[in-house]
Amino acid sequence: MSGILVGRRAYVTGGSSGIGASVVEALAGAGAHVAIGASRHGTQARAMAVRLSSPERQVSVVEADLLDRTALDRAAREVLATLGGLDIFVHCAGIDVSRTAPTHETDDDTWDRMIGLHLNAAFHLSKRLLPALVKGTKPSVTFVGSVAGLVAWEGDVAYNVAKAGLHHLARCIAADYAKQGLRANAVAPGVIDTPLTRGYASGMEGGEAAGMKVLAGLHPIGRYATPAEVASAVLFLASDQASFITGTVLPVDGGLVMV
């Protein structure tokens, strides 16, 4: 799919590691100019920008703590100023579950951070970027949700609800802006081999290797995915090949939610 996004301008939150980094690679590889959204991994993001930049495409970094409304406002302004507009917005920023607990034992900080980074940041950034997006070239919004937003995983109430809300936010944006030519969708990954996932697995019985084996076994396809496999789905949804797809949640889950 090389070259299918030549000249398009994209902003990817959480773009310095994991799924987000693979999305940046995929969009830049398809020819897009990309603003990499980063928070804790600014150095890593800047190294990516240097590596991916070329005379044909601009890759830059926008650093911001998306839980800070002032920083979020600044990030939106900086993205638009740096890219000169926007055609593609991908929200990948997120945090994983560090400790499972039933709903009544879920601490307030965990709830606030999960909802804040996955859902609130997606809304507030979308609100600020949509006026520019609808003026863009074949504009699209894609949120990286989760199968946890499609089924309720025991002990993960904050993450489950945040991702379910993110899926429906994509549908609402799709409904609001369809007549203006903007498409909005979400992907719902299963277990992906990222540092966040391995950190979660390390807290499971038997440690990381045993935990990853258990997580792989959840999928009928018999394994977990690579970040690049999720990025391929995001690239598809952002491209003209998905020109008649909007308001959908695409599972990228090896069949996990079908059983």
TrEMBL record:
Protein name in UniProt: SDR family oxidoreductase
